[in-house]
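Any chance you could type out some protein's one-letter sequence along with its backbone structure tokens so I can compare the two?
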Amino acid sequence: MVIGALALFEHGYARLTEDIDLVMTPEGLEAFHRELIGLGYLPAFQGAKKRLRSTTEDVFIEVMTTGEYPGDGKPKPVSIPNPAAASIEIEGVQFATLEKLIELKLASGMTAPHRLKDLADVQELIKVRGLQPEFAERLNPYVREKFVELAEAVKQSPKD
């Protein structure tokens, strides 16, 4: 399942990126290594399991696995979901649903000071998608208050 900037783009907000962010199950990651390493993909550095590189496009791929926690990596009510339960197919590619993408970005930005861009990404999604504070009801309770705060800030900000 694609997350990160490429998923943001598919949900309406274009942001530059230097890598591709994916979610895989641990079994999917093992299969990736078993079947694709050496066939157009390599570890980004010796021993890397979750940081890969496409040798044809020279693009880095960051992998998060089901059950990990966004942001600071510490346990919280929002975790990396199984792609089968949290994705939508767009043109043959599995992307995180809008709700799941927003949950992950909020949980990341709320717990990791170096990930504040994740909160800005949510604000931009709120703007471009016209999301209202009520959208928070579709999110994990852990992130609802932060979503409402950002949605209210967007409503109060001058229009560009």
Notes: Residues 141-156 form the longest helix (16 residues). The chain has a mean pLDDT of 96. The CA atoms of residues 109 and 116 lie 5 Å apart. Residues 2-156 form a domain with the Beta Polymerase; domain 2 fold (CATH 3.30.460).
